[in-house]
């Protein structure tokens, strides 16, 4: 079976493309930020003391759009790559491919955000990469649940 015939058996409709991009753009930055906070807050408490929790909470309360300023472009890029992969290869993207796409996009975004020399911070680059992985897998789970719920 060729690539063309496989992709024609599972059409990529406008609704499917829109849902994939919308889930990645809306939920991706929030999932990535939540994962990053789960890692950063305990480390910050150990390093700086318990008063840092109030500081982080006040920053997030004052600027709830902050996860989107860092994560909107990488999340949209993951959504676009997932849609292109679905269209070119056909069928839903496997979990391991979604994980690889999220990790790679998160790593590149982390290098662009925190990897500028001479102030390279490999910890933040790695955290950004793993947050991209968590966001991609979380969006994949949300899409799977959404498609299962709308199919019935």
Automatic annotation (TrEMBL):
Tree of life domain: Bacteria
Q: Which residues cross the membrane?
A: 21-45, 65-85, 97-117, 123-146
Q: Does the keyword Membrane apply?
A: yes
Keyword terms of this UniProt record: Membrane, Transmembrane, Transmembrane helix
The name under which this protein is listed is Uncharacterized protein
Q: Which organism is it from?
A: Kaistia hirudinis
């Amino acid at each position: 079976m060729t690539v063309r015939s496989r992709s024609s058996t599972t059409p990529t409709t406008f609704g499917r493309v829109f849902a994939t991009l919308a889930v990645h753009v809306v939920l991706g930055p929030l999932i990535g930020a939540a994962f990053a906070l789960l890692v950063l807050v305990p480390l910050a408490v150990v390093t700086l003391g318990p008063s840092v929790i109030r500081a982080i909470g006040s920053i997030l309360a004052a600027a709830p759009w902050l996860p989107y300023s860092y994560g909107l472009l990488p999340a949209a890029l993951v959504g676009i790559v997932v849609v292109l992969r679905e269209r070119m290869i056909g069928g839903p993207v496997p979990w391991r491919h979604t994980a690889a796409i999220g990790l790679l996009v998160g790593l590149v975004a982390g290098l662009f955000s925190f990897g500028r020399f001479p102030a390279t911070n490999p910890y933040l680059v790695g955290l950004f990469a793993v947050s991209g992985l968590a966001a991609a897998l979380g969006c994949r789970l949300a899409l799977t649940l959404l498609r299962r719920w709308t199919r019935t």
